Give the backbone structure.
Amino acid sequence: MRFAILEDDPAQMEVLTGWLREAGHDVHGFGLARELMRVASRESFDLFLVDWVLPDLTGEQVLRWLRVERGNDTPAIFITSRDAEEDIANAFSAGADDYLIKPPRRIELLSRIEAVMRRSQPRTNNQSLVVAPFNFDLARKVLTVDGVPIEMTDKEFELAAFLFRNLGRLLSRGHLLEAVWGRNPDLATRTVDTHISRVRSKLNLRPENGFRLTPTYNFGYRLERIDPSESPSVGTAVLSPA
């Protein structure tokens, strides 16, 4: 998963980054609140880990900006030395999903992250992901629609699975690149656009079929489930297995 850490203490940042990368996550670190805010305006993440006391703004201000001004409901966990009952209440009021007192312990941190992510994402297991009529066999990388297998490359399958796992979320191109292709500076964002087009076509992700995969200018894509009756042109579409 793709995490953003807002922490101005270099030693603490190094520890948190090390733990999370060892657990298999992509980590982006920020020492200033405004730096994170600038990036969060054009990139998406799966989780924010936020310190409270920062050189420019408070973590509470950052979180309220995410929730209110950006409409961003990405899970967020506060990691701070402030442990007064009022502080904890203010953090949750600002939109925090959990709250950890410094210094965090590795196993507790990873467990809290797992619990927060479990609450925020659709229930899946390591073998399958089902969003009717789509059934993803994650182990074999096989997608069927109403029992009909769809011919896809591995990357098309991984991209489609990631989109359905994040149904309704606005995902940046950079986030999609990291999730499917890993951190590869040689890959252009047009790689995402090309594969999105193929996935949309192969899965017939159109409003008349109950799904809409749309771009957001200068940001990325969102896959939504919609009511086909609300589509301006409702018709019967046939899903090709190839």
User: Anything to note?
Assistant: DSSP finds eight helices and twelve strands in the chain. The longest strand covers residues 211-216.
